[in-house]
Amino acid sequence: MRLNHLDLHVPDVAAARDFFVDIFGLKAVETRGQDGLAILHDDAGLELILSRPIEKFGGADGVMAGANTYHVGFILPERAEVDAVYERLVAAGHEAWHEPRAIRGGWLFYAMGPGRILVEVGWRP
Hints:
Blueprint: E1 5-9, H1 13-24, E2 27-32, E3 37-41, E4 47-51, H2 62-65, E5 72-75, H3 79-91, E6 95-96, E7 101-103, E8 106-113, E9 117-123
Parallel strand pairs: 1-4, 5-9
Antiparallel strand pairs: 2-3, 3-4, 6-8, 7-8, 8-9
């Protein structure tokens, strides 16, 4: 069994879509409605869905909730790739909590994406 998709609720689907495409290289496969839902794929078979919160399902996003209750993580095959993603993220004006550094036996950093999506980017030997 493997996890095949995640659906993250965000207030601005287009901004979150562009963040994951531009910074992490995911491929935008489909956008439904007026940026109501975006479907992205990575090169390992994961499908990331970005959608607006659906009230009838009790949905909220990090901005509405005013808190982060989860994070998503990317693991990269080379330490230098972590540094490259960090540079791309900062150059694009996104918020990084700190520069890449040694944490828990790896090399990583945390950043905040659109819609207050907390993202971990790392490499482990």
